[in-house]
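User: Hello! I'm new to structural biology and keep hearing that structure can be predicted from sequence alone. Could you demonstrate with DMT family transporter? Please show me the input and the output so I can see what each looks like.

Assistant: Of course. The first part below is the input, the amino acid sequence of DMT family transporter. The second part is the output, the predicted structure written as tokens.
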Amino acid sequence: MRPSDYGRLLALAAIWGASFLFMRIAAPAFGSVNTTFLRVFFALVGLAAMLLLLRTPMQFQGKLKSIMVLGIINSGVPFLMYAVAALWLPAGYSAILNATTPLMGALIGFSFFHEALTLRKWAGVMLGLVGIALITTTGEVDLSGQLAIGVLACLIATACYGCAGFLTRRWISERGGLDAKLVAFGSQLGACLFLLPFFGYTLATGPAVDWTQPGVWACVLAVGFLCTAFAYLLYFRLIADIGPLRSLTVTFLIPPFGILWGYLVLGETLTGGFVFGGAVVCLAVWLVVSPSRAAKPAKAQA
């Protein structure tokens, strides 16, 4: 990897780590549904502008419906779940729980997509469960029903991410692939249409919202344009340059940045038990995503 690749990897981790901070500020002020819809709407606008500037042909090759469904699974539902979690969980907690995405992917692949799990990956999954237990039973967050809802929302989000990875391979990659920019745009379009009825219902029947909060609007714009539209393009570019496996290392870098931004901006504090639980989760993720020794000689022989 070139120094510029390391720099982009760190920048992506910092951007995605900041998304939990922005959601933590915006969701309590605007509401989880409103914040999520505005996030995908501004992401859609940003991606549309990029496609126009880059003069990318809007040729979806008959895959637009599949991409839009993927957008619901990979953006609409997970973003809403993280916005719900942001009502109660500190940004650092959500960032650590987001790192369980590869663990969820391994379990979903084994359960529904006929993916084999080695002993090493099983160990990673079990260790990940231990790490989650440590995170949810230590720290300064009150062990209440709201905490449980927040943790469950984060795990639902990571399960959606894990499922979307396999569906992307089945619906997009195995059918000839597609420009990553079009996949990102189509997915946000699907997420936006999915959330639109909920957004309208919340505006009509939900509690009154004070929309005149410049700081909150700055967070919503940042999480839409920067943490979603720009970050997706940066991530897909990294996959093209350094490969998917190396790009997955961003999973390890997001939690430290999420914790750092929460500490610097919101004054969130984390206990030693929570830090230990986060380290256990990162070790579990490494066991799941790192290639096994048996796979390396086979690849070399091929």
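User: So the tokens describe the shape?

Assistant: Right, they're a compact way of writing down the 3D structure. Reading them back into a model, for example: Confidence is low (pLDDT under 50) at residues 295-302.
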